[in-house]
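Students often ask why inverse folding is considered easier than folding. One informal answer: many sequences map to the same fold, so there is more than one right answer. In these notes we will look at a single instance of the problem. The structure comes first.
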């Protein structure tokens, strides 16, 4: 009888060490499974009971956070969603509810960065309308992005200036003012000239 009693106790001790190792490496779902296994053979294992209780509380809170993220996924901007996700990951890194959310949020972040890169390339190529659309779409994904907001405003300023120059050019032609025609035409041509890389080159890889 004593041998039978010692066998599950020895197994529980081994499993408890494994559970502690899982906690150290933040593999909390596996730690939960091990604690349940310990309590099957040693129902009054105090350490396993305490750890399991803590993990269950964390699990419920993480589930609540992930549910909130999923509900707000199409409404909140990328920065707010990322902060919520980081809170959930710190609380329970490998929670089953979070895997799909993490993948969806990662896809959204990649889409944002792709739009910023495309917008920066279009800006450098003087494709103003394409750049404007890219930056505005990036801003819809992350309404708190200073980079997307600044880039969008910059393109809008360029487009407005070009519209103003075309209007003045037409007026100068109508009035026969050849000197002003050349001035406005020359400035318009500058907006189509090759872009010298500078501040704009950083926009495609800068999120905030």
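Output (designed amino acids):
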């Amino acid at each position: 009888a004593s041998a039978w009693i010692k066998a599950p106790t020895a197994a529980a001790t081994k499993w408890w060490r494994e559970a502690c190792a899982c906690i150290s490496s933040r593999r909390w779902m596996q730690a939960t499974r091990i604690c349940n296994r310990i309590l099957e053979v040693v129902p009054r294992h105090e350490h396993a009971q305490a750890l399991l209780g803590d993990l269950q509380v964390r699990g419920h809170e993480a589930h609540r956070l992930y549910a909130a993220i999923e509900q707000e996924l199409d409404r909140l901007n990328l920065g707010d969603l990322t902060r919520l996700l980081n809170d959930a990951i710190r609380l329970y890194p490998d929670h089953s509810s979070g895997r799909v959310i993490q993948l969806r949020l990662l896809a959204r972040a990649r889409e944002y960065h792709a739009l910023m890169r495309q917008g920066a390339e279009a800006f450098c190529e003087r494709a103003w309308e394409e750049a404007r659309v890219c930056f505005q779409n990036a801003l819809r994904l992350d309404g708190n992005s200073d980079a997307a907001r600044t880039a969008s405003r910059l393109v809008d300023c360029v487009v407005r200036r070009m519209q103003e120059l075309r209007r003045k050019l037409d007026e100068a032609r109508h009035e026969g003012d050849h000197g002003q025609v050349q001035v406005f035409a020359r400035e318009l041509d500058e907006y189509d000239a090759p872009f010298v890389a500078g501040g704009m080159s950083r926009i495609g890889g800068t999120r905030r």
